[in-house]
Queue: 3 jobs
Job 1
Amino acid sequence: GDSVTQMEGPVTLSEEAFLTINCTYTATGYPSLFWYVQYPGEGLQLLLKATKADDKGSNKGFEATYRKETTSFHLEKGSVQVSDSAVYFCALTPLDSSYKLIFGSGTRLLVRP
Amino acid sequence: NAGVTQTPKFQVLKTGQSMTLQCAQDMNHEYMSWYRQDPGMGLRLIHYSVGAGITDQGEVPNGYNVSRSTTEDFPLRLLSAAPSQTSVYFCASTNGRNTEAFFGQGTRLTVV
């Protein structure tokens, strides 16, 4: 079945460092891809998305490109801030679904001043 | 803008007790879902609904029931709580495939 694999955390960075969180997926056809972020004590919220191959999603300085050839959707940010400390989830919606989200296990990011 | 509202935020149950987690959305979304979040496992789908009167099972449905009598409400019932159901539960709603899913703030449930 469809699945998402994320790099294990926690990832600890100093402020202004470059961030990469790896995400790869297994799915039939062209799923929609998402990054969700969970701040402490809160629910998940959408960070960015891409719905077709080669699309780049971006928001708040974060970017991810839908790479069909490598089945990847890695999250990047050029300069992280303390306020970016959160848990990041990569997710997909399968081709045959309008509602279902399949999540990776999440990656905790801790940014130190 | 209420979005998705879940209650309660915290709950402690004894093994064998029953309870209902409430979820309401005010965005007129067709699709609503319940997930559980466990350490190292991401979020897993328990049950979902594609509209009022229509529900179906997700990945981990055992021990849970749902109903959807209105577009707005999608309660999750634990019939006889077990320690394995200790988790954080999230309700979500969306209007379709490529649209944003909105999540409630979660219910942290402990079964002792």
Job 2
Amino acid sequence: GAVVSQHPSWVICKSGTSVKIECRSLDFQATTMFWYRQFPKQSLMLMATSNEGSKATYEQGVEKDKFLINHASLTLSTLTVTSAHPEDSSFYICSARDIQGGYGYTFGSGTRLTVV
Amino acid sequence: DAKTTQPTSMDCAEGRAANLPCNHSTISGNEYVYWYRQIHSQGPQYIIHGLKNNETNEMASLIITEDRKSSTLILPHATLRDTAVYYCIVRDRNNAGNMLTFGGGTRLMVKP
């Protein structure tokens, strides 16, 4: 089946620094990937849609200059949290869909970001 | 995509069937019902999906009412490892570019 690999699984960073999270589709190509954020005891909230070779589409209220998304290839999308602050601490999850393989949406294992 | 309504939480005894309901009264004709679950601190996992007919796979069964306004996910023999948040999502499967929108889900607690 379709597999999405997300790395790192957890990261602790100092306030003011930047953190990059990678999302890879391992056995399929994904022209579109999705980035979600999940706070404790809450549901997943879509942050942005990552489009291969073009700009990402951000949801209302999500700062595009703070959450930089790069989708340079058909198998890799990255999310960079710039100038991280404690309120950015959250669980970040990516997702992709193997359309040609007929599979549904596949999710990465998530990245737990803690900003101290 | 149509909105769904699920109970906030449910308990189930280990070894018994877990029946998780979902209301989607505004579903349209080309929208599918998807079920995902999220075990603590992991990404969501696909369980099953269906359009009109009941579906079964190795994980679960999906029962969709004839008017398609509601559905039930059935875990036939729940185990402790089935403790998770279960999300019912309705969307147009043919709309390839669109994301999945998650509601609150049902927190299922399987107890010994």
Job 3
Amino acid sequence: DAGVIQSPRHEVTEMGQEVTLRCKPISGHNSLFWYRQTMMRGLELLIYFNNNVPIDDSGMPEDRFSAKMPNASFSTLKIQPSEPRDSAVYFCASSRDIQNTGELFFGEGSRLTVL
Amino acid sequence: AQKITQTQPGMFVQEKEAVTLDCTYDTSDPSYGLFWYKQPSSGEMIFLIYQGSYDQQNATEGRYSLNFQKARKSANLVISASQLGDSAMYFCLLQYNFNKFYFGSGTKLNVKP
């Protein structure tokens, strides 16, 4: 079975540009998470969806960040406009039923560099 | 406050020896989960092992075992017979209330030949 698929793997863009990161969760998983990893702040949970509905977006840093999950097999994280401090690795993770199974599988991450 | 702590920023271990990576947590929720992930230099996050707060037995997965001491609120990862490929960052993750997650700051493990 395919794991969590993220794209792009690497993106370099200029400040002010719009960035869209994409995620395809594992089929059958009903929860999806977006994380950001930086040297300064470690791994941070940005937003969490359950059955395509955003449940907790308290980790989204500011209004420049938005996330959608139009269906069970696709999610996007958008940054508009991007800033150099947004440079980080963004991970998507999915879970079928985390409380009972302990499953939380990560994609390979999208490394974003904003110049 | 709910949080998770990894006190060892870096560790060295000789190949074929066992190593323990520390993780302590703080939660008042009776139902929670503890995860360990490995992040090699390539960057991906690899799931290693999971322990639920109600699990009676310590979790084991191959060379990985979790030393779960509930009263002490610790969930240390034990890697037996270390291999060179075990060199990586290791993160402890606390999950509670279904959608609350906290990552520790990580421990960088270096396995020496």
